[in-house]
Amino acid sequence: MNALEWITVCGIAVGLAMDAFAVSVASGSVFKELHIRHALRMAFFFGAFQAVMPLLGYAAGNTMSGHINNYDHWIAFGLLVVIGGKMIYEAFKIEDVEKKPQDPSSLVVLLALSVATSIDALAVGITLSLVTHHVYIAVVLIGAITFVLSYAGYEIGKKAGHFFENKIEILGGLILIGIGLKIFISHLCGGSTV
SS3 letters for 58-116? Predict the structure, then answer.
């Protein structure tokens, strides 16, 4: 991977990890009595799902690549802008009642949270081939960054509460939109995105 690929993949990883980070912050602020093993298990599940989902999306995108080569940049741009916009919208959405996250120490809840926070990664995986040819390195990096940020989010939540939660989702959305714009502009200028 060249430096630009590393930066782009890390940007995607951080953007995708923001949902998991926000859930971890909320969990840490509400469930302060959980042990380190619960925080590590939550981070592991979030990281694993964030790694697997883009790989599945990439596989789906590869099967369609022959049909979408002429407008793949539009698809990448559209998906990343929609996902980023959705993250920003949800960060500003006003809830009538303060939402309390489900107890992440429950395996069923943890699986549900892992799927919910990684659905966006499935769609982003479709565009992954436009960013790098080193997909396996990219998904490991996405998983590792999500793991680290999820664990850090839990620890931050124990100390700082919900203060950062919405701002983090906005940042994640802006990162994904920026990467979508980069792919689109690079394609229009005739440059390669990888």
Answer: HHHHHHHHHHHHHHHHHHHHHHHHHHHHHHHHHHHCCCCCCCCCCCCCCHHHHHHHHHH
